[in-house]
Amino acid sequence: MATMDSAIYDKQLAWKLHGQRKLASKSQELRVQHDNECTFSPKTNSRSLRAEEFAAEEEETHGNRFTMATASETEAALLHPTESQESSIQMHLARQERAREHVVEAQQKYERLTAIRGLAGVQLAKDYNKVTTVEPFTLSTTNWKPRQSTIESPTRQIPAVEQVKPTKPGKSKAKAQTSRSSKSPRCTHAACDVHTSKEEEAWESERATLVSIIDAQRRELALREQAQQEAVRVAERFATATQAFEERLVAVEQSAAKELEEVKRLLASQAAATDLILTSLGITRRPGSNSGNSRYD
């Protein structure tokens, strides 16, 4: 069993070493390739190249008739780029300027964020040596007045001479009674009465305010109820007048219908009498004539 484990371990170790050697060789190849490879492509002036080619051709064809361009002319040609080169140079400079602006803006933004995070993360250390005092809540300044301590502790310093001075038994009893009476809580009744009177005054003013508000609301409700009752009365009056007008209109229509029937009856009786008279006289009506538009022969 131990032999099998050692064999497995040896295989794993050999595989690990093989991977390390492979990785080292690959990195060495990449490093050598990066060092040997050159992607630089120099930009040349086409005008100067054409001038050099033309000069070489002239020298080959015509011999020594034309001389080659001097170094100053070549340098002048190189120092004066073409329009395309100038435009490319300007575009490159503009891109560089924009890149610088973007870098500056990003740096400023990062600094602002860092400052904000620093301010948000700063926690003021608590001063444990500082003594804090407990203060009561402030009361309302409209009705309630600030409370004041009503119990005053008697802090009377008794001189040493008085303590040593001998006194009579009766006087000592009277002083003890007066001191006890001064220390008893009954002595604070006057201050308590003053405080309670102030509280009662404040409560009375508050109560008067609430009562006035309630009375105003009651008056408003009474006025609203009165207006509602007046509106109901006006509506009832209007409904009564409308109903009387409708009844009068119906009565007029009925009387008009009756009068019209009476007129029709009278006209019919008059037409019958007229026909009887005409028949007795021997006068006949035209065949197509009506009773209203009758023409006699």
From TrEMBL:
Residues 145-187 are annotated as: Disordered. Residues 145-156, 175-185 have a biased composition (Polar residues). This is Uncharacterized protein.
